[in-house]
Amino acid sequence: MKKIIAVLLVIIIASGAYMFINNFVQENLKAVDIYDESKLSVEIPSGSTTVDIAEILLENNLIRNTKVFKYHAEKIGADSKLKAGTFVFSKSMDADDILETLINGGSSGNTLNITIIEGLTLEEAASSIAEQTGLDYDKIVALMTDGQYFKEDFAFLKENPDITNLQGFLMPDTYNIYKNASEEDVVRTLLDQFDGFYMDEIKPRMENAKLDFEKTIILASIVEKEALLDEERDEVAAVFLNRLDINMKLQSCATVNYAHGEWKERLTYDDIAIDSPYNTYVVEGLPPTAINSPGKASIKAVLEPADVDYLFFVAKGDGSHYFSKSYDQHIKAADEYLD
Predict the structure, then answer these.
(1) Rounded Cα–Cα distance for residues 339 and 337 (Å)
(2) Is residue 311 within 8 Å of 239, Cβ to Cβ?
(3) Which residues of the chain have a pLDDT value below 50?
(4) What is the pTM of this model?
(5) C-alpha–C-alpha distance, residues 79 and 69, integer Å
(6) Neighbouring C-alpha atoms within 13 Å toward the C-beta of 302
(7) Which segments of 71-225 are extended strands (E)?
(8) Which residue(s) pair with 85 in the sheet?
(9) What pLDDT is attached to residue 111?
(10) Quick one: pLDDT at residue 83?
(11) CA 5/CA 80 separation, integer angstroms
């Protein structure tokens, strides 16, 4: 009887806590003043993160709580769609009204969206930015290879002063920038987005991480290329971390492809014999730098890998992988799934 009562108490407390939190969130998503329809012009600078935007809105008394606004924007998938520019709001608008306005774009019409996809090398990212904006490719590359130039402006560079090349830290995302933005403006926008992710998501997890910060990003860049499905990233990360734990070579095809400067679906014996510090079929441990700029999912996978003892995986041909614990199991899987 006591156990039943205890369980009921836990359920009641949990239900009460949920209702309290839900009511708190809903209350803070309401309009600041539903009767005040006076227009207020607000400038959202290019490169602003969701946190930056929330702070600007709070300063103008347009939202009730920055953390609730950010949480709601992420929950409904609006955080990556918010644009810069000049917007007209009123205190009668609730959070959803404000987000819709920010997604539709400001009245100035002087911004554009650019998208940096996951897994691009520094040169590929620079090329993508140049193609989307008309900016100078060489200037972009020069900035991206000079981490020291930005070291006083971003926490992750201040706290990791040895970083010189910014490959690995150019956060993939969709950005709304001013049409007259300079090469430096755009690079700073990418770094600012990474810095926010570093402070909010990476740094709090580092205490329990298996690797230090720079090595975490290096491994995440490998996971980015090896795993096609988000739901497998933590398992792929676990395989490589398990190998590192027992001093087993990573044998990542992605690193060999990076060493060759081209992507091949199937590597030959000659390919994996290349003399390069990025050839993890030959060298032990991680390569010296990230091989691309990974997305958030790959970074989180390395910080919070799956609790499995796999040491091998083989592509099944449909984007997924077969994971195995032993070499014999791996060979059987390779015979089944590879031509």
Answers:
(1) 7
(2) yes
(3) none
(4) 0.74
(5) 10
(6) 27
(7) 85-89, 111-116, 173-178
(8) 44
(9) 75
(10) 84
(11) 46
